[in-house]
Design a protein that fits this description.
By secondary structure, the protein is of the alpha+beta class. Helices cover 34% and strands 24% of the residues. It has two helices and three strands, in the order αββαβ. It has a three-stranded antiparallel beta sheet with strand order 2-1-3, with no helix packed on it. The protein is globular and about 40 Å long.
């Protein structure tokens, strides 16, 4: 998934939900059912930070904007909450 740094939180959230739906095909896709984390290689080590609210998205965007790479890599992973 690739987004511009000026995309809003709702766009990122919708793209994550679409990826979850495609990969897992759950009967109901609810963002609150997942713990999502992100990390940036060589900048923010694993396990990284949570990615569940708009503030987390702002932190990630701030980190990306300070990077010199044209196309920085940001990794994310999710766990289904029980």
């Amino acid at each position: 998934m690739q987004l511009s740094t000026d995309e809003p939180w709702d766009t990122m959230k919708a793209q994550i939900l679409a990826k979850i739906s495609t990969a897992l095909n759950p009967p109901l896709v609810d963002f609150d059912n997942y713990n999502i984390m992100f990390y940036i290689p060589h900048v923010l080590p694993k396990p990284g930070l949570t990615f569940t609210i708009e503030y987390d998205f702002t932190i990630m965007n701030g980190s990306v904007c300070n990077m010199k790479a044209q196309d920085p890599t940001i990794n994310s992973w999710l766990l289904r909450r029980s």
